[in-house]
Amino acid sequence: MLLKKRFASDELLSMRYLNTRMALTEKETLHYSNLEKGYEGELTFDLLAESLKEEKLIINDLLLEVSNSYFQIDTLVISQGMIHLLEIKNYQGDCYLESDKLYAVNTGREYKNPVYQLKRSATLFRQLLQTLKQNYPVEPSVIFINPEFTLYQAPMDQPIILPTQVNRFLNDLNKSPSKLNEGHRKLAQNLISLHQTKNPFTALPNFQYDQLLKGMYCETCKSMLVVIKKKSLVCGKCGGAEKIERAILRSVGEFKMLFPERKVTTQSIYEWCNTDLSKKTFCRVLKKNFIAVGSTRDTYYE
Ligand SMILES: [Zn+2]
Question: 149-165, pLDDT tens digit by residue?
Answer without folding.
Answer: 999 998 899 999 999 99
